[in-house]
Amino acid sequence: MRYISTRGKAPVLTFEEAMLTGLARDGGLYVPETIPTLTQGQIAAMAGQSYEDIAFAVMRPFIGDTFTDAEFKTLITKAYAGFGHAARAPLVQLDSNHFLLELFHGPTLAFKDFAMQIIGQMFEAALTRSGKRVTIVGATSGDTGSAAIEAFRGLDAVDVFILYPHNRVSEVQRRQMTTPTEDNVHAIAVDGDFDDCQAAVKDMFNDFAFREEVSLAGVNSINWGRVLAQVVYYFSSAVSLGAPGRDISYTVPTGNFGDIFAGYIAKQMGLPIKDLIVATNRNDILHRTLETGAYTKEGVTPTISPSMDIQVSSNFERALFYAYDQDGGTVAGQMEDLKSGGFTISQGAYQALKETYKSGRASEKETATAIKTYVAKHGELLCPHSAVGVHVAEAHQGSTPMVTLATAHPAKFPAAVEAATNIHPPLPPRMADLYERSERITRVANDLSAIQTIIRDRIN
Ligand SMILES: *Cc1c(COP(=O)(O)O)cnc(C)c1O
């Protein structure tokens, strides 16, 4: 299995190389040269299997010879052992034909754990084998950083530095980053906003001397390994509802398009997915694009579903690549136009996108109303992101079973949930002492060289 860039000019890589590299050297994103398919029989055989067994069957065709079967099974088992639910991704029935896929039983209570935990295991195994060590640096507005720290804590071949905006993440998110005690993980509070953190990370990757010196690596949402791990729960949920003998539709609360793109891969692999519905909050660049064919940047407005507050959706480039029949040159041109504000998708590619994805949007008021209604009518306390999802899903319901992805636990966003319902969402018992654990925070000015000095000092 070989991996190619969405912009057509970067070296072709193996799975291991693509995973360790992240962004391609031509600025593009890695995708498999061909998408492997599973037969109806192979999909049917997943019924009744454990999440781990399904994960092996789904991911194995993509990893080439990076790991032996026995090794890969061990990594999968370790990755999901820390989850707080035996099913890993349980499905809850909301209505006769509407289901909630709970993706928040991982160690940091958001779906990003599904990908980050297995990425942590795969990095450690691949690096240990080659005797290498890397420094992972990332910026976070909350969920990605905590998931990365939780996934890499205590591993030998990796140091992790997460930059977050000081005083601008929720208390639960901050504590999840600052309370792990292992000395290979570092939460760095930057005096600035999320864009400043992201700019600092980008500058470090562009500082080639520094990049070399500390062996910089990234695990942001464009990493192919992360997308791949998210394909698994489309299979596990669809099979439990009767696939491959029955079509299933999905609504996905969307920001950087990684989660919903994993649904597209599942469909290409042979899973009978009818509709894939992109749900956005009022930062609705994706919804507008699917309505009009024009991808145009506007500012970002903060919402109660902050993990979906985006201006540009990084993984959308992968969707464009397939809509343009894998024409990397055209994708590169559109991405160049994006620098000056936006681009218009050609008629054929726009049609292809519309055949693959539907979309909808929830306002702040609609989101709060959905949180309130779903606890009253269906007994489910939703986080604001999942509430955006169910609101959009309702508008698309037909005779096909609808699965909405619940991307975070309500206790991760207690203020918004309490404002909508007057219920304070409690943390699960296994992390009930989060507010008592002591924190380790390094605060730093919004200054590149100060940040680089901290990283150099800590890894030596
Ligand atoms: C990251 C995140 C999203 C958006 O997922 P994408 O893959 O970026 O589209 C939605 N909800 C929550 C809670 C998240 O953490």
UniProtKB/TrEMBL annotation:
Broad class of enzyme this protein falls into: lyase
Similarity annotation: Belongs to the threonine synthase family.
PROSITE patterns recorded: DEHYDRATASE_SER_THR
Protein name (database record): Threonine synthase
EC number: 4.2.3.1
Cofactor: pyridoxal 5'-phosphate
Reaction equations catalysed: O-phospho-L-homoserine + H2O = L-threonine + phosphate
Gene Ontology terms for molecular function: pyridoxal phosphate binding; threonine synthase activity
GO annotation, biological process: threonine biosynthetic process
Ranges where the Threonine synthase N-terminal domain occurs: 2-80
Positions carrying N6-(pyridoxal phosphate)lysine: 112
Tryptophan synthase beta chain-like PALP domain segment(s): 90-329
Pathways involved: Amino-acid biosynthesis; L-threonine biosynthesis; L-threonine from L-aspartate: step 5/5
Keywords on record: Amino-acid biosynthesis, Lyase, Pyridoxal phosphate, Threonine biosynthesis
CDD domains documented for this protein: Thr-synth_2 (cd01560)
